[in-house]
Specification:
Distance between the termini: 47 Å
Shape: globular
Strand order of the largest sheet: 3-4-5-6-2-24-23-22
CATH architecture: 6 Propeller
Number of helices: 4
Strand content: 35-45%
Radius of gyration: 19 Å
Largest sheet: 8 strands, mixed
CATH topology: Neuraminidase
């Protein structure tokens, strides 16, 4: 009987994601960012000839990051977002978003940034569950997203908890396809296609919805954390997810978001000189290109062991054989 009870208790424990041994990405350079208000870097995108960043605490600015080596200077570009659409979140979530925005800044809470080949920028608002487009010419406008998007996501168990909403966005170069990442509890990926001036889901909006937990690195205390997505990127007809708590970047299929391969950046993130006084990952932003990946760290109010208190951007070298490699 004792053995039976033990077996049943083990079955009742939450499943932990298996963490296979992954190839480590090579760090090419590290760039502290000077000039971002509050230090909250939440999104990165390479648009035409420059790397751009967005902050989740500032509603009216994008930042062009200037500098080839060492410190990147953030040059602010102001814009005025029109009133966001009313997506009718539950009253409790609306109030918590409003209070958070009032106390810390950032009522729109921009958590992701992407760019198409024409140079149009796309920002995803976590608080308002909407996407703002900053066109190369013309005024900013909110994309017309289908009402089924939120309904299907919530029916799949996503977007139910405060501070666990949309956390990443990716747009293909033509600006015809768009993907959104739900952060955690449950995490997931959603897909939309443009139809003239609006966006629609082809069949189901939900590509992936999953729960689970992962064990953080021993250097950070080895605590159990929910599986999460903190950023999303599109490159060569693949989606790339930044998985903050697992300290890795994964390549996924467009059709069903199945994982094809992952690469770790844990050796860089938990290096003794780069550690923050928290037990969770801090990587919030991702852009993937032929030469490598840009990963942005949102340090918030925390300083690293080496005293660095500014947000940081890492430049990783593409894996041997490129991002499409199976080895």
């Amino acid at each position: 009987m004792r053995r039976l009870l033990l077996a049943l208790s083990l079955l009742a424990l939450p499943a932990l994601a298996e963490e296979p041994s992954l190839s480590e990405l090579q760090l090419l350079s590290e760039h502290p960012v000077e000039g971002m208000s509050g230090g909250n870097l939440s999104g990165l995108a390479w648009c035409q000839d420059a790397l751009w960043a967005v902050s989740d605490r500032v509603d009216e600015r994008l930042y062009r990051l200037v500098g080839d080596e060492g410190v990147l200077q953030a040059e602010a570009q102001s814009f005025a977002a029109p009133p966001p659409p009313d997506i009718r979140l539950p009253w409790g979530l609306r109030m918590r978003n409003w209070v958070a925005g009032t106390l810390r800044g950032g009522h729109l809470d921009f958590e992701g940034l992407s760019c198409d080949a024409a140079g149009n920028r796309y920002l995803v608002s976590e608080a308002r569950m909407s996407v703002l487009m900053l066109p190369v010419e013309g005024e900013p406008r909110w994309l017309s997203l289908p009402s089924s998007l939120l309904r299907q996501a919530r029916a799949s168990g996503m977007l139910l908890h405060y501070n666990s909403m949309f956390e990443g966005i990716a747009v293909d170069p033509s600006g015809e396809r768009l993907w959104l990442a739900a952060e955690r509890m449950r995490r997931g990926l959603l897909a939309l296609q443009r139809q003239r001036s609006s966006w629609r889901c082809s069949g189901s909006c939900v590509m992936l919805s999953e729960s689970g937990e992962t064990v953080g690195p021993a250097a950070l205390g080895g605590k159990v954390q929910p599986l999460d997505f903190s950023a999303l990127a599109f490159y060569q007809d693949k989606l790339f997810t930044l998985e903050r708590q697992a300290h890795r970047i994964c390549r996924r299929q467009l059709g069903d978001a199945a994982v094809e391969r992952c690469w770790s950046f844990a050796a860089v993130a938990v290096d003794e000189s780069r550690r923050y006084p928290v037990a969770y990952g801090m990587a919030e932003a991702l852009w993937v290109d032929k030469e490598g990946a840009w990963v942005g760290v949102d340090n918030g109010r925390f300083s690293r062991t080496d005293g660095e208190s500014r947000p940081v951007v890492w430049r990783f070298v593409a894996p041997r054989g490129g991002w499409s490699s199976r080895q």
